[in-house]
Here is the input.
Amino acid sequence: MSFDIDFSKIPTHSRQTKPTHPIDIFQASAVTDKSINDLWLAQGDALRKWHEHRNDKDVAVVLNTGAGKTLVGLLIAQSLVHETQRQVVYACSSIQLVEQTADKARGYGLPITTYYGSEFSLDGQYQRAEAPCVTTYQALFNGKTRFASDDISAVIFDDAHAAEHILRDQFSLNITRRDMGEAYSQIAALFQPYHQSVGPATSYAEAISGGSSRLFWVPPFEVRRNFEELRHILLAANLGQHRETMFSWEHIRDHEDLCCLLISSSEVTLTPSTVPVSTLPYFSQDVRRVYLSATLRAPDAFVRAFGREPERFVSPSTTVGECERMILVPSLNANVDDDVDSAIDVIKDKKALISVPTYLRSGKWSPIAAPPSRTNVPEAVSAFREAAAPEKMILAARYDGIDLPGDTCRVLVIDDLPTGLGPLERFQWEWLNMQNSFRSTVASRIVQSFGRISRGMSDHGVVILTGRKLVEWIQLPRNRFLLPTFIRRQIEIGENLSNYVKNPTDLITAVDACLSRDEKWVESYNDRMRGDVSESDPVELDTDKVKEVALAEAMFGEALWRRDFQRAVSILQNALDAAFEISQSTGAWLTLWLGFALEMTGDTEIANEHYRKAHAIQRNVPRPRRDPAIGTVAVSEQVVNVQQQMRVGQSSPSAVEIPKMLIKDLIALNGSGSAPQTEEALRCLGQYLGLDSTRPDKELGMGPDVLWIGGNGYAVCMEAKTDKQSASPYRKDYVGQLHNHVQWVKDRYDVSEIIPVFVGPLLPASEQASPSPDMKVVELGQFERLGQRLVSALRDVAGQAIPLSLSQVLDEVMKQRGLMYPQVILSMEMSTLQENSPQ
Here is the structure.
């Protein structure tokens, strides 16, 4: 029996217009979360401002921890779904936060889909563009992501400050000794001859045998030299078939020769110098991006994560999330011998979270706790959340995705300075001393750490700061200025309190006063928080310069990844001066990569010159193999370092020439330059003499103006006072500063003797100063004459030597001219500051 279809009666879906203003969406939602009565003022301000500029491609929304970023982000996501009728993704830093965000969305009455563990919930809503999909950064950015083919119109990045290391993880191929022992051993053996040729053969052998934790960076020119064999090893390892490597291999494959290669006792890592996020589809022109964060104070950290600047910052003023904190710094108390031991005494009967930068550092806390394994952190956090006092938990190198507000935890210890979270960042931090480039990243991680036990104005807790590096970092004005004003006030109150109490047991009394809500503490805290932050002098920040270099690195990384080597060269050439203004280490890092880009264009001679220059400036930048055309006479390390800077075989195969920039780099020794130019000329003089020559105060914000260290254990610790008025004696604070810097060198370097030197006019110390007997004064003209002797000697070497005899001639001439260290400094005309009479 047939059925007659009345096509006119087929029902139609009603096409009701959906609101696109996020506040309208909120007002139309069936909110079931009893804690939500209405939008907070700052949330409404943020949503209105974003809506006003919703067509901008990159918008950062900055709100304090606890100020309701999640609701703001979810409303923006739903607004974009309604407007574009395409897919929208909301990225979180962990599965725990995906679940937490989804629960909040349901309480807000907002439709939601989740994706994690390779499974969607309510898949149809996302595919039909009815609701955003909440997922992890890892799911979104892995090399086999299922989102790459979707019609995505927008991405919301929650906790954008945590994205940098997660994105790098997705582009990092890790070949571990444990899981892929054969490939690890083959790669480690492949680069053993290189390390034998350039010096650290024993240290390298010790590391790859598992006997040390040292990290080695194989420079890109050496990766290229061995690329065919390396590729054979990688292909034989079937990296695309192993779950541990298949996702990152999808990114790295066909770019292996462009990556940094790092080797430790446990793994080989291949990772880009800069993550090329701009090559990913989510960063195309037709995708809008919203970045939610509490800590985007410095733009360079954002640039390193996302390869771009936000077009707009939406940062409404609010006190929401500014909770009460008692901050204690035990080491500032004169009666505390060991700040970790003191902190252990303070928290022994308290429930406390302890944040440390590395698993190795967690050993300091072994009397009271041990960290969970890396794979067991979520379960450990859940168990700790429900535990009672005196439970302790240690988190190693975790600065995101952990929230323990209110009574779940009231006491936090932040122990030592956050450092690199991956092999490359670790190498840049620990071996290349690129701290000046990472100051904003460190500040962000410190702020994240403070937020682990804080949620909202009604919350309160105690934060104890331990570890010499962390305390020194926070006390430096240019670092502290990167922290929010509210936290700076709290730190100042805590420093004064830590200094004020009479003995370590009083710290326990202070903590109890905060936790028990003692009226005197609460009243005192509130009174002091209403005051201004004490800052004696304006803080000069180089954040614009650091951001400029970060943008150049991002553009360079993209050009390199696309194999547009000429563009890559052009980008770094334009950025190099700015990089050196930030720090010598940053300049050396980019100099090496400029050399590599030049080599890829075929300009090997200039490339080799850049490789030599990078190593001469920063000794831990790996040096090129010694040219087989250059003689190999056994000479001192100092002579080898000078030899590496000579130009060999460039104008003709047999030519030896002095370093190209030698005379220009030393010109400020004549007194014509500014104070920074003079310090840089002193550093360059040490470099060209073959010494480890640095400017710690510029690089790290602490230590002497210039530091020379030779392989024989002698250090020259210099304070440049070349701009002093001629009649002004060396003041008490100058002398005290030099005393402190000598101790700073002793604490950090294995040196047998330190010569403390003021570089300036021959004047006495003031009556109030107490200089030590070994404190010297050397006029700048002495260094100018030393520079002239060095230039003359190297010109003679260039005139006498051919490549095969360079080592021998250089050794002979430097000895004849008295340029060997430390005699070269000991033979200078000096005055003792104490006696002000020539030696």
Notes: The chain has 35 helices and 25 strands.
